[in-house]
Every structure is written in structure tokens, then in C-alpha cells.
Automatic annotation (TrEMBL):
Keywords: ATP-binding, Kinase, Nucleotide-binding, Transferase, Two-component regulatory system. It comes from Mediterraneibacter gnavus. It catalyses: ATP + protein L-histidine = ADP + protein N-phospho-L-histidine. This is histidine kinase. Transmembrane segments: none annotated. One of its GO terms (molecular function) is phosphoprotein phosphatase activity. InterPro entries: BphY/WalK/GraS-like, HATPase_C_sf, HATPase_dom, His_kinase_dom. It comes from the Bacteria. It is found in: Membrane.
């Protein structure tokens, strides 16, 4: 990425979405496990070794107030709105995203941010 590239989006909403995704990954990753951030010019990937999300729950995690049964404890806190906010922001900004289990059963969220050259 060069200094002539810029993100074409609402920076405050994007910052909120990225913050919520990272905080959710950290919140639901056990002590001693890791959260990994990988980014390139066009894609941000967040991978965490947290709880494995299966089947129907993969479809529900972006719904408001949804929390997996095992995450209802006070240990994690939260309201079940974090990923719903992420979904809403990325939808408003028309940023494609994907959430899935990767080849090692870790939770993986990716989204693509488009860049354009600044007009000088």
C-alpha cells in the first residue's frame, strides 16, 4: 500500500466494526490461546482459537442478542450485540465479509476493503 492509496468508506464506522471484531475475538479466546491479525492491502483477517462455532450458530452469530449457550456465563460479559453491530456496519458500508471455521477449526473472519488512488 502506498501513500497514494486511501480507503473509500466511512472511517468512523469502519473503525467501530474492526474494533468490535477484534474485541469479540479476544473476549471469547481462552487464556493461553491466541488471536491473530493478518492484513494485506485489500483484506483484513482475524483468526482466534476461541470456542468452535458449529452449524446453525454460524448463521446466527450476527443476529442481535445472540450468544452461544456456553458463552452465557458472566466470565465473558457482553450483550450479544458486538457481531450484530459489525454486520450492520459492514452492510451499510457495502463491505463483503465472511465468517467460518478454518482448516484447524479456529474461528476466522475476513473482510475486503477496496482502495483507490487519491486524486491530486
Amino acid at each position: 500500500m502506498s501513500s497514494d492509496d486511501e480507503i473509500v468508506t466511512d472511517k468512523n464506522l469502519l473503525r467501530k466494526a474492526i474494533s468490535n471484531i477484534i474485541m469479540n475475538a479476544v473476549l471469547y479466546t481462552e487464556t493461553g490461546k491466541s488471536v491473530e491479525l493478518n492484513y494485506t492491502q485489500y483484506m483484513l483477517e482475524i483468526v482466534n482459537e476461541g470456542e468452535i462455532i458449529e452449524g446453525e450458530n454460524l448463521k446466527k452469530i450476527f443476529e442481535p442478542f445472540f450468544r452461544m449457550e456456553s458463552s452465557h456465563s458472566r466470565e465473558h460479559g457482553g450483550s450479544g450485540l458486538g457481531l450484530y453491530i459489525v454486520h450492520t456496519i459492514l452492510t451499510i458500508l457495502d463491505i463483503p465479509y465472511d465468517f467460518r471455521k478454518n482448516h484447524t477449526n479456529e474461528s476466522q473472519m475476513k473482510f475486503v476493503i477496496y482502495f483507490r488512488n487519491k486524486i491530486k
